[in-house]
Amino acid sequence: MKARFASLGLVDFAPFILDVDPVISSRLWIDPVAYVESRNSQSGFRIVIDDVASGALTFETHDFDLMHGLVCHYIFACLTEPLRSGAAE
User: Fold this and answer.
1) CB–CB of 49/38 below 8 Å?
2) Are 45 and 64 in contact (CB under 8 A)?
3) Residue 37 pLDDT level (bands cut at 50, 70, 90)
4) Which residues are CB-neighbours of 9 under 8 A, at least 6 positions away?
5) CB 5 within 8 A of CB 21
6) pLDDT value at residue 41
7) pTM for the complete prediction?
8) CA–CA distance, 51 with 27 (Å, rounded to integer)
9) Measured at the alpha carbon of residue 87, what is the angle toward residues 34 and 53, in degrees to the nearest 5?
């Protein structure tokens, strides 16, 4: 991902830091169709990918590492999709 961020002209490899407050419910939008929501009523996270054309995928977990891995995989897939589809040529 460092090379991808560099190709976007970003100096910092990690351009933002997310601070999740366990008391306040918060939502981090990853892109126009995907977000991570911290849930204050229950300790845990909800990941939603809502593509109107094909439906929605919702995943709930209490495991931060699992949530982190899924979000990283999703971001990596989005960043590399043009390369996989041949659109970057």
Assistant:
1) no
2) yes
3) confident
4) none
5) no
6) 61
7) 0.61
8) 17
9) 35
Contact (CB, 8 A) for 31 and 81:
no
Distance from C-alpha of 31 to C-alpha of 77, rounded to nearest angstrom: 12
Residues with Cβ within 8 Å of 67's Cβ and at least 6 positions away in sequence, in order, are 36, 45, 47, 61
Structure-block tokens of residue 87: 């659109």
Specify the amino acid at residue 19: D
Higher pLDDT, residue 77 or 22 = 77
| Rounded alpha-carbon distances, angstroms, from residue 31 to 36, 41, 49, 79, 81 | 10, 25, 9, 11, 14
CB count in 10 Å sphere of residue 54: 8
